[in-house]
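REVIEWER CHECKLIST
Item 1: Sequence provided? yes
Item 2: Single chain? yes
Item 3: Sequence as submitted:
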Amino acid sequence: MANTIAPFGFRSFGDQEGGAPTMGLTRRYLASSDTSLYFTGDVVINSTTNPGFISLPTSGVTTGSTGSVPILGVFAGCEFFSPTVGRVVWSSFFPGNTTSSSPCNAYIIEDPNQLFLVQCTSGATVGTSQIGSGFGFTSTGAQPSGNQTTGISNISLVSTTVVNTAGAPFRLVDTTSNYAPPGTNGTDGTTPGAIVVVAFNNQLRRGLTGPST
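Item 4: Structure as written out by the authors:
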C-alpha cells in the first residue's frame, strides 16, 4: 500500500544498543523574543548570533553542506512565562515572541545514541539499500506549518539527496518495514514517503564521520 505523506518531525524511537539508557532531556535557553515557531520534533542548533541560546538551523545545516555547524538536537517542548495567564506554562511548541523579559527553558533530545522515526519526503523512494547513508531534512520554512494544537512538527527527511559528507545531520539506520506490521503507513519501501529510523551524525556530542556508502 502506498505511503501517505503525513510528516511528524523527528520522533524518539529509543537508544542504540550498547549505550547507557539515560535518554534524558537537556535544558537549554530559548530567547523569549525569538519570533520563530518551534515544534516538538524540530531540529535545533546553538545560536550563532545569540550565544547560549538555541535557534533554528540554516539551510546549509539542513542539507549537510555546512559541516562546521553541527546540529544540537531535537526540540521536545518548553516552559515560558505567559503574560496572558500570568504564570509559567509548559507547551509542546513555542509560539514565538512571548513578550516576556525572561528567557524560556527549552528541552532538547541530545543523547548521541538516540534513534528517531521520521518520514521521508515524497521526492524519491528510500529503502534498506541506503542504510548507512547520510540525509538532510526539510528547511525551517516547513516549521511554521507545524500543528499548533498538538505541537507536533511538520519537517521530514529529504529523500532526494544522499549527503555523502561528514556534514550529514542524520544517518539512516533502518526502515520501519522491519518493525511495524505490513500495511502500516510508512512501511512500503517501494513508494516515496517511507518512515525510517535515523540516528544523529553531525551532532555536537558525536565525532564527525562520513557515511558508509
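Item 5: Key structural point noted by reviewer: The chain has one domain: 11-200.
Item 6: Recommendation: ____
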